[in-house]
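Page 42, continued from yesterday. The earlier attempt failed because a stray header line got pasted into the input along with the sequence. Redoing it now with the clean sequence only.
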Amino acid sequence: MRKFLTALIVIPLGLILATFAVANRHFVTVSFDPFISDDPSFSATMPLFLLLILVAGLGVVAGGCAVWFGQRRWRRAARRHEADARAVRGELADLRAQVAAARPETQRLPVPSGVGLYGPIGRDKQRATL
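This time it went through. Structure tokens are written below.
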């Protein structure tokens, strides 16, 4: 469904962009010199459609960078929480090992092969292979 919706949006946009490029092939001069407008020292001559596509691409890149920098706080929090979770899992494994070692041999029940603490190893609740 997602590919269909993407195609539904991208194909018409591509057709519109191609039509726009064919209709606006004449050249324009873009000047970056605000002081001399007659003969600018820093200018570029290019087709109008290319100029507009470059400006739109620059806007997409600038927007992507702004969003990426704006989400810095959330990425940092996710890394911190992941590190905390890893540390807690390690502590839990150590505590389980200590409890298992402290339990006398007579209290331990025999465990059939292929069966873990929470049921068969390698299968979920519906007995499907993981």
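Notes: The beta strands are 27-31, 43-47, 115-116, 119-120.
Reminder to self: strip header lines before submitting.
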